[in-house]
Amino acid sequence: MRRGDTLKRYLVVKVAEGWSQVINWIAMPGLYTLEAAQQFVDSAMLNEPEAKFLIQEVGAA
Fold first, then answer.
1. Residues 3, 31, 50: CA angle, nearest 5 degrees
2. What digits encode the pLDDT tens for the residues 14-58?
3. Which residues lie across from 57 on neighbouring strands?
């Protein structure tokens, strides 16, 4: 882990297409470390392989 990474937190967002190809963002509950966010996405992809997820840094805790 790099110096300073312990303060960063990440939000996991599911990308969903809405009507007329409008993109909807569905925030998954919780703030995560980068490693935990990646594990969350990996697990979610097993349940929904067609889904798209983004990990977004949201700032310091």
1. 110
2. 988 766 667 788 889 999 999 999 999 999 999 999 889 999 998
3. 10
pTM: 0.73
CA distance linking residue 55 with residue 42, whole number of Å:
12
Give the sign of the dihedral formed by CA 29, CA 41, CA 32, CA 23: negative
Is residue 11 within 8 A of residue 59, CB to CB? The reply is no
Is the alpha carbon torsion for 36, 42, 46, 49 positive or negative?
positive
Q: Alpha-carbon distance 56 to 54, whole Å? A: 6
Amino acid at 25: W
